[in-house]
Amino acid sequence: MLEVDREQVVAYRIAAQGLHRSERDAAKLAVFDLGLQSTQRDTAAIALAARLDGEVTEESFVDDDRFVPAWTHRGAPHFHRAGELPAVTRALVPLGEPDAMARMGWQRRQVEAAGMTATDALFAAARAIRQVVDRPMTKGAVSTEITKIVPPGLSYWCRGCQATHVLEQVMRLAAIHGGARLEAGAFPATLAPVAGRPRLRTTPDAKAATAVVANYLHLHGPATPTEAAGFVGTTAKAVQEMWPSEPAEVRFEGRKRFIPAADVDLLSNPPEPDLVRLLPPWDPYLQARDRATLVPEKARQKEVWKILGNPGVVLAGGEVAGTWRTKGTGRKRLDFTFTLLDPLPAAARKAAEAEAERVAKVRGFGDLRVVWG
Predict the structure, then answer these.
(1) CA–CA separation, 359 vs 351, rounded Å?
(2) Per-residue model confidence as pLDDT tens digits over 243-263
(3) Which helix (H) or strand (E) holds 361?
(4) 329 falls in which pLDDT band (50, 70, 90)?
(5) In sequence order, what E strands does the chain have?
(6) CA distance 298 to 316
(7) Which residues pair with 80 in a beta bridge?
């Protein structure tokens, strides 16, 4: 069994995620095999800029009809290759009731109290969304209309809005099954019918679900079933039903972990991660569920992954060496503040400032001011 150390694992993931910036075609980037999360405005385009050899702008990415955003993994918004959205939808059909309930995540108790199974709740909401979303509609408008249709147990009184809403996580998980995607670049969040709008599928597709786990192992391996389950939003037991056949076993930090057999050579001898990249909040690299591998110190983990308002990170020489935040002055100047966790040599600082200029261009700012904290 191959035994690897942290440096190998980090270098492997940087290479697997395309951070050596050797690809010019966004559609060929491996991160789209899982989907590119876009939780905050511009984050997806900034993640592309960290990987793509060539200029990236928010407009060019949003207008690229090869990609489509939708609420998918864990109900979070992700960009997917448009042609793969049907397979992604099939992969998100729960394999059974325990899987369906686990995916309800933070609203599991409300679903349990609704007087129906999580599977029934999911597809009741999906049918309501299919009935309502026949044109682009804001998230608020969709919520209002489907709340009138879904069983009462799937809604709640919102004090802040002084209105009754469908459960947020149920709506997010159900949207893709209801044939609804997100409108790229729209604010507030806007749903629209998926092109071709395939019929509602309620039958599980273990093969499609297995592909998600296999892609997680490729991008974030070597990993455990529990870590893969964390990305999917389910339990380790459910992931066993999605587990790829014959992955390679490796030993890392005293534990048996797994990686696709085709990736063993790259893991054994990954290229040196001698690069500087600025990663946005929720970048694919930061989606690994073993955060201690990326940032060993717990205090530093709290600086990178916050309850609210994650910063971007500075990746230098394979390490998360700092964080960054920005503040725009109108649409003219972007103020860029770095907060270092480790000292950076002058060459790395210069490279980070060049990456900051790249981020500013992505966001459409012509002027940049950098502050080192």
Answers:
(1) 13
(2) 999 999 999 999 999 999 999
(3) helix 346-362
(4) confident
(5) 2-4, 36-37, 67-71, 77-81, 137-138, 155-158, 163-166, 180-182, 190-193, 248-252, 255-259, 276-279, 312-316, 319-329, 333-340, 367-372
(6) 19
(7) 68
Q: Is the dihedral of CA 74, 77, 80, 86 positive or negative?
A: positive
**Whole-prediction pTM value?**
0.95
- DSSP code of residue 283: -
Distances (CA, A) of 82 to 32, 96, 130, 149, 194: 10, 27, 19, 29, 10
Contact criterion met (CB below 8 Å) for 239 and 258: no
Return d(Cα 247, Cα 152) in angstroms, integer.
45
**Cα 194–Cα 199–Cα 200 angle in degrees, nearest 5:** 95
Residue 152, exposed/middle/buried by CB under 10 A (0-12, 13-18, 19+)? exposed
- Where do the domains of the chain lie? 2-193, 276-372
Is residue 267 within 8 Å of 5, Cβ to Cβ?
no
Task: Specify the range with the lowest mean pLDDT, choosing from 138-147, 273-282, 330-339.
Answer: 330-339
DSSP count for the chain of H helices, then E strands: 16, 16
Residue with tokens 């696709």: 260
The helix (H) or strand (E) run that includes residue 343 is none
- Separation CA 84–CA 194 (nearest Å): 12
Q: Which two tokens stand for residue 233?
A: 């939003």
Pick the residue with more confidence: 183 or 373?
183
- DSSP per residue, 188-242: S-EEEEPTT-PPP--S--HHHHHHHHHHHHHHH-SB-HHHHHHHHTS-HHHHHTT
